[in-house]
Amino acid sequence: MKELKKKNAFISDMDGVIYHGNKLLPGAVEFVEWLRRNQRKYLFLTNSSERTPRELREKLLRLGMDVPEENFYTSALATADFLARQRPECSVFAIGEAGLYNALYERGISMNDSSPDYVVVGETRTYSYERIEKAVHLINKKGARLIGTNPDMTGPTEHGIVPATGALIAPIELATQTKAYFVGKPNPLMMRRAVKRLEAMSRETMIVGDRMDTDIVAGVEAEVDTVLVLSGVTAMEDIERFAYRPSYIMRGLDELVEELRR
Predict the structure, then answer these.
(1) Per the structure, how many domains does the chain have?
(2) Mean local confidence (pLDDT), 215-232
(3) Do 245 and 174 lie in a common domain?
(4) Domain ranges, residue 103
């Protein structure tokens, strides 16, 4: 635990770590208070592409936490960063919510439903057969490349598990026989971008997450130490199924704060 306290930068997942849906999880408020009081850099990193940083900040405010917009980094922002570097001023056909659309517009990426460079898919509640059909046509007939904001098949909410981007993009992959490129975790690209945004080094950074298949493996591949919390998707009995292990295992942020305060 001495090594844990030496970390200067903390990256934390949100769903399953900070909250479930509209329910704040134990230790979340105390964790942010500890980070501020001890002058640690921190970033909330989420594979969800639905919300903008402003919306995420407003959600946490409603739950009783005040976190500046610049302390959020989403898979939508990471996807927009990736596309802007790969092909500046490209165009996309996007299936998603405000978080994805805003991130793309801010990086100078335009919407195009006739001959886009990319089809980009994120979480959405306005999913329809018509949009799937359009995406398939643009890939098969127009040569658009398929991008997913993240590969998560499911996500946790206060009502239980719900479908995420990996599940929504699967029909398009099957119909086009095309494998999507996913920008979000476990792609270490997103983790490296997060570390860079914190102006930190990998060895002085720690990631806290609830998923072995995204948060923890992303940390391992980016050479960032990891804390797995059991407040989200992964249960203790799941850990042995993976070839890699987290640096620390804790029940939730409340236990992490207890250790940091000692």
Answers:
(1) 2
(2) 94
(3) no
(4) 76-182
Query: Which residues are CB-neighbours of 133 under 8 A, at least 6 positions away?
Result: none
More confident residue, 110 or 154: 110
Of the chain, the percentage scoring pLDDT greater than 90 comes to 86
Q: Are residues 167 and 193 in the same domain?
A: no
pLDDT of residue 4: 85
Q: What pLDDT digit, counting tens, does each position of 202-219 carry?
A: 999 999 999 999 899 999
Instruction: Report the half-sphere exposure of 239 (CA within 13 A, side-chain side).
Output: 15
Same domain, 156 and 204: no
% the chain with pLDDT above 70: 99
| Residues 10 and 205 sit within 8 Å (Cβ to Cβ) | yes
> What is the rounded CA–CA span in Å between residue 79 and residue 147?
8
> Nearest Cα to 38, choosing from 230, 198, 213, 261?
261
- Give the catalytic positions in this structure: 13, 15
| pLDDT at residue 158 is higher than 70 | no
- For residue 209, the cross-strand partners are 228
How far apart are the C-alpha atoms of 95 and 122, rounded to whole Å? 6
Amino acid, res. 108: G
Q: Is 103 inside a domain boundary?
A: yes
Of 182, 204, 233, which marks where a domain is finished? Answer: 182
Average pLDDT, the chain: 94
From 255, 239, 246, select the one nearest 224 (Cα to Cα).
246
> Do residues 99 and 147 share a domain?
yes
Q: Do 196 and 238 belong to one domain?
A: yes
Q: Which of 182, 208, 234 is the last residue of a domain?
A: 182
